[in-house]
């Protein structure tokens, strides 16, 4: 059973953006130093919370957790069995199985939306039904307050949209749907200049807006490769121009792009 302090520790690490690995004792035979279901959280600094038995076993878990956290992102989970006497030299002589779960923000499906207007309101309500984490950035508190309350969604108020760039984690999908291209352009320009490692960059708008924005970015000296990577118009054309049907098209396109790698 998960205690509240364990859950709070995970939540604090997630809010801080600290990578961590959870080790869970999932099976056992014979004498072991803990009970099945015991859990421990490890960060790059070592044990952060809980225990799977202490001593040599915990040191082994810590070593494996650090190894998994150091991987290039391909490994998210790992399962391993140990014979305590043969593998660790422990006299209790039992056998156990451990399940490791790696948690890094860049391994999750992160979506950052700039703009909390009518379309974003509908889009966010669809996205929180998916396995993703969403940050919605806006300068207007009254619009952010209308967003649905959900653990997967964070409303982020900023004085200037460009401040929200700090919330973009590596590998995130970024969507711009602010009040117009006048507020979209500075964000696009800043993303391009900083060469942020994002997965996909989408901009809501028409073909005409797409052309204007791309010409302006080219005049500003942004690389052609970056300009060509912008998805605009954004969303699969599945219906009409109501917020609901546009949002469905955007979700469809996001899922298609994510599944294509």
Could you characterize what this model shows?
With 261 residues, the protein is of the alpha/beta class. It has two domains: 4-105, no CATH class; 108-259, NAD(P)-binding Rossmann-like Domain (Rossmann fold, 3-Layer(aba) Sandwich). It contains nine helices and eleven strands. The chain has helices spanning 4-16, 55-69, 84-88, 118-127, 141-144, 181-194, 207-219, 224-229, 243-259, and strands spanning 20-29, 39-43, 46-50, 77-83, 95-103, 110-114, 133-138, 153-157, 173-176, 200-203, 230-231. A six-stranded parallel beta sheet has the order 8-7-6-9-10-11, with helices on both faces. Helix 4 crosses helix 9 and helix 6 packs across helix 7. The chain is elongated. The two termini are 36 Å apart.
Keywords:
alpha/beta; six-stranded parallel β-sheet; single chain; 261 residues; 9 helices; 11 strands; five-stranded antiparallel β-sheet; Rossmann fold
What's the short version?
The strands form 2 sheets. A 6-stranded parallel sheet has the order 8-7-6-9-10-11, sandwiched between helices. Strands 3-2-1-5-4 form a 5-stranded antiparallel sheet, with helices on both faces. It has helices spanning 4-16, 55-69, 84-88, 118-127, 141-144, 181-194, 207-219, 224-229, 243-259, and strands at 20-29, 39-43, 46-50, 77-83, 95-103, 110-114, 133-138, 153-157, 173-176, 200-203, 230-231. With 261 residues, it is an alpha/beta fold.
């Amino acid at each position: 059973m998960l205690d509240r302090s364990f859950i709070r520790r995970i939540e604090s690490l997630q809010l801080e953006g600290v990578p961590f690995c959870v080790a869970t004792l999932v099976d056992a035979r014979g004498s072991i130093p803990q009970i099945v279901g015991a859990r421990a959280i490890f960060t790059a600094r070592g044990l952060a919370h809980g225990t799977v038995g202490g001593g040599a076993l915990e040191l082994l878990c810590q070593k494996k957790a650090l190894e998994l956290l150091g991987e290039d992102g391909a490994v998210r989970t790992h399962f391993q069995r140990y014979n305590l006497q043969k593998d660790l030299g422990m006299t209790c002589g039992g056998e156990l199985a451990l399940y490791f779960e790696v948690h890094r923000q860049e391994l999750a499906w992160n979506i950052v939306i700039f703009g909390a207007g009518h379309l974003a309101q509908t889009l966010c309500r669809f996205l929180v039904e998916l396995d993703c984490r969403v940050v919605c950035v806006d300068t207007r508190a009254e619009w952010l307050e209308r967003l649905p309350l959900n653990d997967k969604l964070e409303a982020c108020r900023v004085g200037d949209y460009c401040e929200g760039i700090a919330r973009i984690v590596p590998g995130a999908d970024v969507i711009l749907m602010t009040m117009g291209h006048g507020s979209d352009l500075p964000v696009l320009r800043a993303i391009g200049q900083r060469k942020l490692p994002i997965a996909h960059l989408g901009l809501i708008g028409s073909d005409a807006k797409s052309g204007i924005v791309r010409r302006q970015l080219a005049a500003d000296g942004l690389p052609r490769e970056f300009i060509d990577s912008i998805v605009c118009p954004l969303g699969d054309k599945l219906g009409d121009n109501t917020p609901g049907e546009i949002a469905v098209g955007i979700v469809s396109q996001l899922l298609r792009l994510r599944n294509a790698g």
